[in-house]
Design a protein that fits this description.
With about 190 residues, this protein is of the alpha/beta class. The chain contains four helices and twelve strands. The chain has an eight-stranded mixed beta sheet. It has a two-stranded antiparallel sheet with strand order 4-5.
């Protein structure tokens, strides 16, 4: 990544977190709204979907994941197993407790069954019209998508408030594009590069 792109992303993240907090306060029913768009994603029954546990003020995907589960999908969740490696996904085990990961996020336990999702629900700070996203700076989802897409077809679905869209997000060759985004306004597919 060029130093200019790195600096631009770093500066945007500060504003993005404040903007996202405003949007979260304005849309307390966000999760319920986006769950109504589950059919629009065209995810077939039997698909393994990678969800995530939302941070405070983050666009929460749990109700959407529940809606996909009721349509016959299996939902797995990410775990950081090594800082410079792709995320590992695991299927929750009923009645067993989650653990706090290195970043304070609830994660599956390492002994829960591994899963290899065909669809990833992806958190973000900003997204643009081409499907690029601004993440948190650790590149976990970019590494994970690169790894999965080298092996098979994987769809990346950003989960965001509509107000998180920018005309353009700084990106470089290591940034993976989203296939679509779900906001409280609906599902939007991005053009192929």
């Amino acid at each position: 990544m060029s130093s200019d792109t790195f600096a631009e992303k770093k500066a945007l993240r500060v504003a993005a977190r404040a903007r996202r907090a405003e949007l979260a306060r304005a849309l307390p029913d966000f999760g319920g709204r986006i769950s109504g768009f589950a059919d629009d994603l065209a995810v077939t029954s039997g698909t393994i979907v990678g969800g995530y546990q939302a941070l405070p003020d983050e666009a929460d995907s749990l109700k959407l994941a529940d809606a996909l589960r009721t349509r016959g999908c299996e939902v797995a969740y990410p775990r950081v197993h090594a800082k410079t490696q792709p995320l590992w996904f695991h299927v929750p085990v009923a009645g067993e407790s989650w653990q706090r990961g290195a970043y304070g996020i609830l994660e599956p336990r390492a002994d829960w069954p591994r899963a290899f999702p065909a669809v990833l629900l992806v958190p973000l700070l900003y997204f643009d019209r081409q499907g690029y996203r601004l993440g948190y700076g650790g590149a976990y989802y970019d590494r994970t998508l690169q790894h999965f897409r080298a092996e098979r077809t994987v769809s990346a679905i950003g989960i965001a408030f509509a107000g998180q869209e920018l005309p353009s997000v700084p990106h470089d060759a290591g940034d993976e594009r989203l296939d679509m985004v779900v906001t409280e306004q609906g599902v939007r597919r991005f053009p192929e590069a």
